[in-house]
Write a structure and sequence with these properties.
It is a single chain. By secondary structure, the chain is of the alpha+beta class. The chain has 18 helices and 21 strands. The chain has 4 domains: about 210 residues, Heat Shock Protein 90; about 140 residues, 2-Layer Sandwich (Ribosomal Protein S5, domain 2); about 80 residues, Rossmann fold (3-Layer(aba) Sandwich), CATH 3.40.50.11260; about 100 residues, Heat shock protein 90, C-terminal domain (Four Helix Bundle (Hemerythrin (Met), subunit A)). Strands 1-6-5-4-7-3-2-8 form an 8-stranded mixed beta sheet, with helices on one face. Strands 9-10-13-11-12 form a 5-stranded mixed beta sheet, sandwiched between helices. Strands 17-16-18 form a 3-stranded parallel beta sheet. Helix 11 links the parallel strand 16 and strand 17.
Length: about 625
């Protein structure tokens, strides 16, 4: 054919600036698009070969090759797919936005099940102009009577096309990288970008640097390495679950997410109707509370990476997990970067939620022991899901476990049944097993274990559970004095108790330099505890919530009543001593009151810096008195 020149058939002369600035959010997308087009071309020719409409002979070693030349500043994308005739170049390249993939499917839709074609949009090729000043195409169609075609364009609306010299079936696209593409003259950048977007594409992808000095051994001989594909053409999630082993699941997890730790367990998604969806969701082992925010779910469309953590498809609470989901039916926009609004995506999201809930219920029922081993790690995910998704709550509410202070795992029903003779619709909990050790011990002395709720999500979680079960009340062990802790056998004279409380208020106000010390005098069963601090559950929760929302230093927080109460044990020798010597020995009473108060606070929370300094100084003084 003779040299042909012309103008690209487009609706706007500004198409390339639009592609560069608006169509694709990331410049590295061009690598995904061009490799996807290469895979498309291979899928097409494979299909024609299977239908007897192409004779490929033994040339079926399908692959895509990417070649970087840093000296010439070029990046080539080479496939041995269907190739193009001059007429097809005019139709599919010169007419921007004409989708070759859609045209191919239309022509062959009645000839059996067509393998998935990646490119649906027709504009993928033009992403090359985001980084290239000049793009060349060398192509040869699979048709036996075809002639090679060479096409070039410098990013304007003009192109040149002539007969080419390519001798092998397929297409070679050469990008002459400009200023915007200098980043991709780096071998590591190109390789990692291929691995990012093309890890699971259906044909082998090879990468080489044409002008790289070959490695040599000690004798000066060139080391020839067997080319190794950068991708896995049949990733684990595309297989039937029954054909996958535990070791394969673990290996896939480690490789895909660069993880050294094994996952706790996984869910293999495999659905063909009413939509096509495959994938694997992993529940990772957490390192700490903050690790729960580091989940990552990779979304693919026909083995082409789209994005991480797309909330329209992945339920929000499951974004805390790690996994791979591939859904060819996703209604993506032209750049494949965003989902178009569609009721379809909601159905996919609901399906994923259901599968996760089913898996949790199955584990709980079939292997409770194993489920309990996982619980500490998976509970933040589940609790977050309960808060965010009503349907998920309904499906898994019966398998929510609570770890007790003696390391048992109970459902709320099991906990209430166990302590039915001691508690009435109450659940005692601790948020800090070390700080609240004294309260835990006192409960244990009366045959009751508290549940451990020490994660940052537990505060909204228990509020949610209470809202669903209005008779159920969670009470932190320091929230009030339970009847369990009081000595019911001790006779109580209310008038005497009132007078003694007044005496103690006077002594402690003076010793602590306060005017409003709230004191409650009780006969506790334990004689080892002189005093303890309790707070109102409602007040404390409100203060914690306001602090969480940055209102801790504001006027509203200052107006909240301080409902901290110092409970003193009438049976303890120190309290008896204070009552018996309230009118004498002022210095000793001050010392006792201050020490009892600080010890009580320490069982509830850390002392303020100045208070801690005074406590240490006072403790030393007391020890000196012991030996004097």
């Amino acid at each position: 054919m003779s040299m042909e020149k012309g103008s690209l058939s487009i609706h706007s002369e500004n198409i390339f600036p639009i592609i560069k600035k608006w169509l694709y959010s990331d410049h590295d997308i061009f690598i995904r698009e061009l490799i996807s087009n290469g895979c498309d071309a291979i899928t097409k020719v494979k299909r024609l070969n299977s239908l007897g409409e192409a004779d490929l002979g033994d040339k079926i070693d399908f692959k895509v090759k990417v070649v970087l030349n840093t000296t010439e500043k070029t990046l080539k994308f080479i496939d041995n797919g269907i190739g193009m005739t001059d007429e097809e170049v005019k139709k599919y390249i010169n007419q921007i936005a004409f989708s070759g993939a859609e045209d191919f499917i239309k022509n062959y839709k009645d000839k059996g099940e067509v393998e998935q074609i990646i490119g649906h949009f027709g504009l993928g090729f033009y992403s090359a102009f985001m980084v290239a000043n000049m793009v060349e195409i060398d192509t040869l169609s699979f048709r036996s009577d075809s002639k090679a075609v060479k096409w070039r364009c410098d990013g304007g609306t003009e192109f040149e096309m002539e007969e080419g010299t390519k001798e092998e079936r397929g297409t070679e696209i050469t990008l002459h990288l400009g200023e915007d593409g200098e980043t991709f003259l780096n071998e590591y950048t190109v390789k990692t970008t291929i691995e990012k977007y093309c890890s699971f594409m259906p044909y082998p992808i090879y990468f080489e640097v044409a002008d790289k000095e070959p490695e040599k051994d000690a004798d000066g001989n060139i080391i020839v390495d067997e080319p190794k594909a950068l991708n896995e053409v049949s990733p684990l999630y595309t297989k039937q679950p029954s054909a996958c082993t535990d070791e394969e699941y673990k290996e896939f997890y480690k490789k895909t997410f660069n993880e050294f730790q094994e996952p706790l367990f996984w869910i293999h998604l495999n659905m063909d109707y009413p939509f096509n969806l495959k994938g694997i969701l992993y529940f990772p082992k957490l390192k700490d509370q903050f690790d729960t925010m580091e989940g990552r779910i990779k979304l693919y469309n026909s083995q082409v990476f789209v994005a991480d953590n797309i909330k329209e498809v992945i339920p929000e609470f499951l974004l805390l997990l790690k996994g791979v989901i591939d859904c060819p039916d996703l209604p993506l926009n032209v750049s494949r970067s965003f989902l178009q609004n569609d009721g379809y995506t909601k159905k996919i999201s609901d399906y994923i939620t259901k599968k996760v809930a089913d898996k949790l219920n199955s584990l709980f029922k079939s292997n409770r022991t194993e489920f309990e081993k996982f619980w500490d790690d998976i509970s933040p995910f589940i609790k977050y899901g309960l808060l965010r998704d009503e349907k998920f709550y309904e499906k898994v509410q019966s398998v929510i476990l609570y770890k007790t202070t003696d390391d048992q795992y109970l459902t709320i029903g099991e906990y209430q049944e166990k302590y039915a003779d001691k508690l009435d619709k109450q659940v005692y909990y601790v948020s800090d097993t070390v700080q609240q050790a004294q309260y835990i011990r006192m409960l244990k002395e009366h045959g009751v274990e508290a549940v451990v709720l020490d994660h940052s999500i537990d505060s909204p979680f228990i509020s949610q559970i209470e809202s669903k079960n209005t008779e159920l009340k969670f009470k932190r062990v320091d929230s009030h004095i339970s009847d369990l802790m009081k000595d019911a056998d001790e006779a109580t004279d209310e008038e005497t108790t009132k007078k003694e409380t007044e005496v103690l208020v006077s002594v402690f106000n003076k010793a602590l330099n306060k005017e409003d010390c709230k004191i409650q005098l009780e006969n506790l069963k334990s004689e080892d505890v002189a005093g303890m601090v309790v707070v109102s559950e409602e007040s404390r929760r409100m203060q914690e919530m306001m602090k969480q929302y940055g209102m801790g230093g504001g006027l509203n927080f200052g107006m909240m009543p301080n409902e901290e109460i110092l409970v003193l044990n009438k049976k303890h020798p120190l309290i008896k001593y204070v009552l018996d010597h309230s009118e004498t020995e002022t210095d000793t009473l001050n010392l006792i009151a201050q020490q009892v108060y600080d010890l009580a606070v320490l069982t509830n929370k850390p002392l303020a810096p100045e208070a801690m300094t005074n406590f240490i100084k006072r403790s030393n003084e007391i020890m000196k008195k012991v030996i004097s």
